[in-house]
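TODO from last week: model rRNA methyltransferase 2, mitochondrial.
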Amino acid sequence: RRSVVIDLGCHAGGWSQIILERINREGFVVGVDKVLIEPLENHHFVQGDIQHAATIRKVEELLGGRQANLVLADLAPRMSGSRMDDHLASIDLARSALHWALSFLRHNGTFVTKVFDGASLENFKVQLAQHFAKARVCR
């Protein structure tokens, strides 16, 4: 079975390149970002905001009913300089990425996201545990 991967926040393409190498360019990789990236061979890019329904629809069309093995979200909010505000914005993006994972992942699929550490992290981990057999934090 060919791997299907969704790379949220794929600008500048680094994780997508690694994924393409790991799956020997035989899988289906969709990258999503607000910022345009240089085209990659065997990579399907959608320019858009992950929090907008139009972006989700474009990815649904590209996938054509396929479900992902992996949803990777290397997202960061626009930094405000306030540690708490940046943490909360990061959690908000991670929750949006979780929505993508719940929508597009196949059974026993993997969801990886980046989150800034802070007071809401424990609550987010509880939310993850409701949907995944294993949820862990790596630093």
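Done. The radius of gyration is 15 Å.
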